[in-house]
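Input sequence (426 aa), recorded before submission:
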Amino acid sequence: QNPELLEAVKEQGATVLAMDMVPRISRAQKMDALSSMANIAGYRAVIEAGNNFGRFFTGQVTAAGKVPPAKVLVVGAGVAGLAAIGTSVSLGAIVNAFDVRPEVAEQIESMGANFVFLDFAEAQTDGAATGGYAAPSSPEFREAQLKKFRELAPEMDIVITTALIPGRPAPKLWTEDMVKLMKPGSVIVDLAAERGGNCDLTVPDQKIVTDNGVTVVGYTDFPSRMAAQASTLYSTNIRHMLTDLTPKKDGVILHNMEDDVIRGATVAHVGAVTYPPPPPKIAAIAAAKPKEKVKELTPEERRAQETAAFKAQTRNQVGLLVIGGGLMLLAGLYAPASFMSHFIVFVLSVFVGFQVIWNVSHSLHTPLMAVTNAISSIIILGALMQIGSGNWLVVILAALSVFMAGINIFGGFMVTRRMLAMFQKS
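Predicted structure, token format:
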């Protein structure tokens, strides 16, 4: 985009690296300055939207009345879009998100947002490109996209657009008629303002208010509005880049053009312009495997399916109970009474333990195993009872048992506490 500068660098024989050209592959994430700044921009976009939005993000029920939650639409689920989604969800808003790359749908939904699907044939859906960026869409896809946005516009309180195509002006995705459909007091934050904006009414570096009361924020310096954080992340990216440039850790720069990351970021080297770089050998985002469409069941079919599943489950439970009862009856005929009393307690403990663990959330299974490890050290009671023995060997073994079981108890509870703390907001 600046051929004069590249020619000047070429004549000087300088080696120049562009931090915004670091390829988006897993190994290069620590050096990806563009992603670092986009992350800040997505977060700051939500803060700016909240500053210009006259209501709560989260819904509330108060003595003065009910406050509905804000509805947010994020267009584009790249780094900035995902940061905006995460921030909006954490503030309690109802978040919808759209992206031309269908493979990010699960990622969006895993963050607590709703993915906006288009009424468009899956075989024709395009826009997913290598390198982690979107590509220009077909006219048919664009029409379906704009039609869906017009349906959503009257419901949305905040719209954050992040769509960019490398080397091209930003696509116009939020047209003037969509702005007119929005409610007074709504906010549009255009993160693509520097490249012309995704909204027709965006004015770069300015905030405007339309005739129907919609605020359009077109700032282009979102990372600069969080300067301390931006400097911290960018300096970390630079440090990692220098680490890769000095593999021997002796301070001597070794510019290895065979390295995908260094080659991708290099725009000039030894009197030659090396821009644009070749595509990375490793794809940034793997193509999503087409999923088989599940047939929608009618209410009658769903009820019949549930009834059949319930009957099958009941038959299995009855069969297991009959077999278990028969085994206990056989054991009772031949085993002594003392054994049966212990056996019944054992069976009940297994049943109760199974029911307790089965109802624990999957996300808490690891802390559950840690605290179970601590509770299992109840064997310390047996060791304590043996310490009073008159045999010195038994006393030594009991003391060692108490020591090791004590480590298990304290360690298990300490690790469990640290794990549970990860589920709490500090």
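Checked by second reader. Confidence is low (pLDDT under 50) at residues 123-130.
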